[in-house]
Structures are given as structure tokens and as C-alpha cells.
């Protein structure tokens, strides 16, 4: 998968097995593959709202498909040791259409036929559209992993937080699982970093730009006035809303802002909006993942705001999934669930009317053979260490993603 920051293709390999009502996930490794620079530039231009005709769209879909195919080939060989049986792809979101608080459509690029042709494996892809068709937002799909993985004890609420281009949370332990996008994660920070460095940097690596600035309260208040932050969940957003134009309009209203102050303020905006969303649900712990966890200025601001409400901030590594690989492991889980006839969405997290098996399956180079559909729903996910000797337990095994 590649997130809204488009800073590369995240690849993970996992051994997944059904054990009654539990999915066991053994991480085999993860990595990131850099997009070809020209392709990334064209994608960023298209997402920014510039005209994208049918020809350009076809070329982008093919380009992303080929890039994902090479990433999948690398993952199958280098991470899965040549034993992969299934590929799952969340693709590259180019547009997420939300109108009047309801998702009307979503478009992910990365034609799966290229992945199937390159790897020879069946591919589960286009995983968001079915949830949207069922009345959901198609995001955040991480709710199904988080709800199964972080189920806490009675009376305890845990929140899974992903800080990508857009930040999203999953609330586990309440009346029912709930997930939604809180607003910008790195999206506006990346826009500002690109602008103030004249394109030399596309992100504020290590929070260095923000660390030298002070928070401009007038700009922060202007940005916080956006009605999205007070809209009730489930809800979703993207770079269609939180983009360069959005930031420029806010700057036009407050006047000139020093470069480092701009980065400091946008970093604080992410911390404020994420923390405000989290504390509404009174969690004991927030489990963070995603690229934003590598920004110490952002993490310090978020940790401070959560601590004021007695909430601890930890990393997903503490629960067995790497911070920079968790979303790719999500893709693997979603593909595995679909292949076994199981739903990949949780209605409370996306707003869908009912659970649905997600995505479409593109056969590999051999006839498609699906396993017998699971006889019972899955109620938990257990992250385990990979055990090569366990590979002999064929009657219990389900495909590797």
C-alpha cells in the first residue's frame, strides 16, 4: 500500500492462519520501496487538483500498477522467501469523494493485473469500494485489524492511532468499535516543508523545521475553525480537503508567517486535533503507528496533551506490529479475510450498513482455488513469532499474504 503522503510503497509479508475464531499473524518482515520520482510527481500533481484527463489517468493507473508489481515481487522473494500464495493491495488513493458528510466514491490506482502478471499470484485489490457501496466511508479500514488486535479488558478503552498524510483512530473497548479520520496528520506539514524549502524537502524530517519555530495562535485558531473537526464520526477526509489551497486560504486571512513558525503551528495542529479526538473517548492508552511517529516534535506535543488527561502514548511496536509496517500488514490481513470469505470491514468503524467481504480477486497464472469459506466469524487477532516448524501444520493453515 501507499498512503496519502505518497512517500513510497509499503510492503509486508505475513504468515496468516485461522485458529478457530482467532487469526494468527506472524510478521515475516517489511520494507518500503521508493516510487519512481517522475511517477510520484505526476501523482502529487493529480491529487493537488490539476486537470487529469482520461489518458493521464490511464497512464497513472498503469504506472502505479507496475510499481506495485515490482514491490510485490520484491516482497514475495525477499520477505516471504518465495513461498507467498496471495498478494493484497490497497493501491494508491487518488481521490476520495465525500459530499455532505457521506462518502460517494473512492478511487485507488494500481491495476492489479500487473501485480498478478509479475508475481504469478492471485491478487485481492480495490478493497475500499465495496464498503462505500454498502454505505461506509471506505476508510479507515484499519478498524478491523485494531478491533481484533487490541481488544482490551472489560471497561478499558484503547485507541489505535495512525499518523499518515491523514490521521485516523480506532476506538476499541467502547460500546462498539469506532474509527474515523481526525484530520491532517502529515499532509499540511508536508505541503509547508515542500514550499519553504523550495522543493528540496517534501517533509519535515525529524521535525527540524518545526523545532526552531513558535506556535502562531492566530493561524492555529484559523485552522481549527474548520468544521470537519467538529463533525460527528464516522467520517473521512483526504488531501481533497486538507491541501495546499486549504493552507493558502488560511494564510491569506492571518498574513505573513515565518517559515519555522508555520511548521511549528501545523505540527501543533495535528497534535491538538488528534489529542482532542482521542480524549473524547477516555482511553487508557493510545497505540501509535505511521510515518508521523518519526517526528519527535509532533510526538512530544501529542504525548504532552494526552498526559494531561491521564492517557499514555505508546508505539505499535510495543504490541508486536512495527510502526512503519502496520498499514502494510493491514493490507495482508484484509486480503486474507477476503480469500477466506470473511468480512473486512467493521460497520461501526466505517459507517457501512453491514459487514462485507471486500475487494475483487484477480487470478494468478494458475487456476484460482479459494479455500473453503471460514465456518465462523473471527473475533480476535494474535501477533505471533514466525515458527518455521509450524509450516508442517497444513490442515490448519490458510494462505500466506
UniProtKB/TrEMBL annotation:
The keyword Calcium is annotated on this UniProt entry: no
Keyword Kinase annotated: yes
UniProt signal peptide: none
Region of interest: Disordered: 347-401
SUPFAM superfamilies, per database record: Actin-like ATPase domain
Biased composition (Low complexity): 362-373
Protein name, as recorded: Anhydro-N-acetylmuramic acid kinase
Amino acid at each position: 500500500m501507499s498512503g496519502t503522503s505518497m512517500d513510497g510503497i509499503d510492503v509486508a509479508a505475513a504468515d496468516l492462519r485461522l485458529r478457530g475464531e482467532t487469526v494468527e499473524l506472524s510478521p515475516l518482515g517489511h520494507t518500503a520501496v521508493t516510487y519512481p520520482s517522475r511517477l510520484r510527481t505526476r501523482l502529487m500533481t493529480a491529487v493537488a487538483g490539476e486537470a487529469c484527463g482520461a489518458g493521464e489517468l490511464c497512464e497513472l493507473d498503469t504506472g502505479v500498477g507496475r510499481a506495485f508489481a515490482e514491490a510485490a515481487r520484491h516482497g514475495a522473494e525477499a520477505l516471504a522467501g518465495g513461498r507467498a500464495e496471495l498478494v493484497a493491495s490497497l493501491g494508491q488513493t487518488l481521490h476520495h469523494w465525500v459530499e455532505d458528510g457521506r462518502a460517494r466514491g473512492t478511487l485507488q490506482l494500481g491495476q492489479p493485473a500487473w501485480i498478478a502478471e509479475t508475481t504469478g499470484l492471485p491478487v485481492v485489490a480495490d478493497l475500499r469500494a465495496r464498503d462505500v457501496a454498502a454505505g461506509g466511508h471506505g476508510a479507515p479500514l484499519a478498524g478491523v485489524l485494531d478491533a481484533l488486535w487490541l481488544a482490551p479488558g472489560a471497561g478499558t478503552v484503547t485507541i489505535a492511532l495512525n499518523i499518515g498524510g491523514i490521521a485516523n483512530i480506532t476506538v476499541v473497548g467502547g460500546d462498539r468499535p469506532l474509527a474515523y479520520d481526525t484530520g491532517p496528520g502529515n499532509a499540511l506539514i508536508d505541503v509547508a516543508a515542500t514550499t519553504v524549502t523550495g522543493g528540496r524537502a517534501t517533509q519535515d524530517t525529524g521535525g527540524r523545521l518545526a523545532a526552531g519555530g513558535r506556535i502562531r495562535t492566530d493561524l492555529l485558531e484559523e485552522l481549527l475553525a474548520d468544521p470537519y473537526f467538529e463533525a460527528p464520526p464516522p467520517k473521512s477526509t483526504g488531501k481533497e480537503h486538507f491541501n495546499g489551497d486549504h493552507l493558502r486560504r488560511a494564510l491569506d486571512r492571518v498574513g505573513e508567517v515565518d517559515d519555522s513558525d508555520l511548521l511549528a503551528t501545523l505540527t501543533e495542529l495535528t497534535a491538538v486535533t488528534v489529542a482532542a479526538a482521542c480524549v473524547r473517548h477516555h482511553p487508557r492508552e493510545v497505540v501509535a503507528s505511521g510515518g508521523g511517529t518519526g517526528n519527535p516534535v509532533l510526538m512530544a506535543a501529542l504525548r504532552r496533551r494526552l498526559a494531561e488527561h491521564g492517557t499514555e502514548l505508546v508505539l505499535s511496536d510495543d504490541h508486536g506490529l512495527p510502526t512503519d509496517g502496520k498499514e502494510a500488514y493491514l493490507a495482508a490481513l484484509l486480503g486474507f479475510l477476503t480469500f477466506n470469505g470473511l468480512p473486512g470491514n467493521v460497520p461501526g468503524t466505517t459507517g457501512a450498513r453491514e459487514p462485507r467481504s471486500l475487494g475483487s480477486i484477480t487470478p494468478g497464472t494458475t487456476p484460482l482455488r479459494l479455500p473453503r469459506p471460514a465456518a465462523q466469524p473471527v473475533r480476535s487477532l494474535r501477533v505471533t513469532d514466525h515458527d518455521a516448524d509450524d509450516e508442517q501444520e497444513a490442515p490448519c493453515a490458510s494462505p500466506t499474504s
